[in-house]
Recover the amino acids of this structure.
């Protein structure tokens, strides 16, 4: 199993936020994809490591919801630079801006080629009254995108069945899973039932556009919580400036004479 091969981390933590049932229901029933990120708050998630060291956790889309009385589900997503590549920026509202391209970590920190940016997830359940809930009590799905078109429908996204994966690979009683992944990692492009339902096509790290990500949690087919974010791959600043100058020159040349 390659899925979650980098880390499966267990612990109990806490966080608070309201439920977004309507949007979660749309996602779970296969309706058109969201037109904006979904979260309860956008900011720091201090307890998140995303399966590594030094991965920024100060600008994260986070959603939390109480379920089954006293159990608290927290799901979170973010996008960050891969190793020493340039840091990502964001709009403060769940949309991250990345630059195109791929390498082996910026300064050769990895033997695997990847896009210049990673996407990160955090999924946790805890009891506020001393119980021992586990993630496998719920149906959890993690969605990811290979198509740079904006607002792709849910049915076109790749899906990781987190619950099936944990049942097959994780120790009993797991309450937290978090990791940092890259769309160029090979296992994301290959169907591996029931664990991975890969999207069509292939991810092009040089393509400009938007990539959609989401986590949905349900219990007995009832939506519990959803978090979603976008990563927009945009031209490098220097390229954008040159493009702007070029367009400006065209405009000047087209200006009629007096």
């Amino acid at each position: 199993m390659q899925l979650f091969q980098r880390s499966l981390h267990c612990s109990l933590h806490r966080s608070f936020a309201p439920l977004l049932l309507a949007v979660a229901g749309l996602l779970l029933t296969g309706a058109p994809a969201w037109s904006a990120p979904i979260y309860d708050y956008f900011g720091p998630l201090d307890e998140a490591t995303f399966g590594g060291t030094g991965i920024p956790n100060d600008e994260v889309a986070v959603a939390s919801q109480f379920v089954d009385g006293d159990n608290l589900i927290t799901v979170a997503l973010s996008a960050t630079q891969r190793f020493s590549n340039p840091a990502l920026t964001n709009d403060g509202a769940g949309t991250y801006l990345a630059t195109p391209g791929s390498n082996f970590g910026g300064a050769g920190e990895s033997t695997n080629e990847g896009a210049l940016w990673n996407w990160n997830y955090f999924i946790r359940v805890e009891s506020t009254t001393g119980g021992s809930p586990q993630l496998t009590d719920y149906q959890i799905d993690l969605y990811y995108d290979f198509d740079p078109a904006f607002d792709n429908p849910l049915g076109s996204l790749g899906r990781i069945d987190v619950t099936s994966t944990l049942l097959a690979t994780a120790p009993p009683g797991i309450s937290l899973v978090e990791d940092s992944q890259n769309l160029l990692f090979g296992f994301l492009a290959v169907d591996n039932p029931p664990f991975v339902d890969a999207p069509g096509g292939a991810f092009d790290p040089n393509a400009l556009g938007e990539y959609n990500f989401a986590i949905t949690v349900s219990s007995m087919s009832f939506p519990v919580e959803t978090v979603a974010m976008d990563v927009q791959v945009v031209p490098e600043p220097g390229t954008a400036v040159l493009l702007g100058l070029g367009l400006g020159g065209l405009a000047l040349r087209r200006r009629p004479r007096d």
